[in-house]
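cache lookup: miss for this entity combination. No prior model stored, computing from scratch. Input as submitted by user K.M.:
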Amino acid sequence: MKSSVKLFVLGGLLVAIALALLVSPFASGNPDGLNKVAIDQGFDDTAEQHALEDGPLAGYGVRGIDNQRASKGLSGLIGVVATFGVGFLLFGALRASRSRRPTADRT
Amino acid sequence: MHIPDGFINAGTSLGAAAVAAAGLGVAVRKTSAYLEDRQVPLAGLVAAFVFAVQMLNFPVAGGTSGHLLGGVLAAVLVGPWAGAICVAVVLLVQALFADGGITALGLNVLNMAIIGSFGGYLLFALLRRILPRTSGGLTVAAGVAAGLSVVAAAAAFAIEYAIGGAGGAPIGTVAAAMVGVHTLIGIGEALITGATVGMVLKVRPDLVYGAHGLVPEPLLSRQLQTKPAGS
């Protein structure tokens, strides 16, 4: 049972990586709903520059990679791996926090 | 749907951050009480999957795009508490991509993680009561709740804009435009959520948190067919 959950997670991660790496470069580049409303209603210029606007991954691209699609796909791959890593560690810590209280432990 | 810094003033953002933090606090407490070992990698996967699908902007009417928010999807798969944390993790990682503001993080967590997962799961649970207790019924409940959660998030933005929005756009117009376009985006959210939940239900129904009390029809009929011969 345990190993088959691992298999499911591995398969799911491969799907997520494929979507981020291979499909996201072909996603619509139009402004999303909120941005479009902001443009139409004239408050889009109130947006301030993001603190990490000059970061290496800003705007879903990897700085230094000129090919736009490769850049976006690679940034997606990094994002998926980073999100899984952060999530796994965080949820692992939450699970572990219960083990330290023996009374709350389930059998 | 990611609010950048500047759209909403600091006071309103801070208030939203306080509400979001309180919600996440509850989510953390509940999650650490129920999360099982095997759900740890699963919850990580759900967060990673939501990140990936949020990158897939699909076109809706008039030069506009939308993407999955994922609050209901995450909530149905790993529960509303862990689900909200999944979406919050996604929003946090997205800061590296300069997507969604830093001071607006509380607003975004409130609209997408708290309203999306808590509110969306509540809708999902209500819909499950009136829909058949089959995997089809569960899939429809997840899809409809997901679609409505996007409209709810859009309405939440309109309220936040009414309280502390910049640029002086008329509140009524902003609210109508937000709800209008996000009704279309919500259809996409419903389809993606329904398809994903349906697929996981087919492969591993035991891993779907929201499937408690589900009567898996094919399994049931298979049992009925094999049981008399076996015992």
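stored under new cache key. Residues 227-231 of chain B have pLDDT under 50 and may be disordered.
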